Amino acid sequence: MGRPATARGYYGGVEAAFLRHQPFRSAIVEEQGGEKREVAMAQTGQRRSARVLADVPIVIRGEFANHQSFREETFTVTVSAHGALVLLAANVALGQKIVVMNPLNRDEREGRIAYRGPLHAGLSQVAVEFTQPSPEFWPVDHPPSDWNRS
Length: 150
Fold this sequence. Notes:
Layout: E1 10-11, E2 14-15, H1 16-19, E3 27-32, E4 35-40, E5 52-53, E6 57-63, E7 69-80, E8 83-88, E9 97-101, E10 108-120, E11 123-130
Antiparallel strand pairs: 1-2, 3-4, 5-7, 6-7, 6-9, 7-8, 8-11, 9-10, 10-11
């Protein structure tokens, strides 16, 4: 007898491996004397705005450390007034500046990479944080009440 088959689940176009909760390690990138280093941040458990599950097509543009630019069409997993969790193939770095664009209306917001998870099937979960809260950027019919206080 062979090994039993294991089922792989998919949820809303996202493989189950992406949805497993990993302890979130927040970090900021600090630059001193031209050298970047990660600095751990205390996690308060308090979010600035609620997250909403939403599959929103977006385009992310940026520039790598070697000055090579990239542009990637992707989608969100969750959105909030302060940013989104997306799936990216680009090898982005913590603190890296990016631009998020809605391809339907060409609306753009500046942001930075706030978290990058491990690779799964060539993609990473990446948290994008807007430079300024932008609840109006996302097509959410009934946004959470805390999006108005952002």
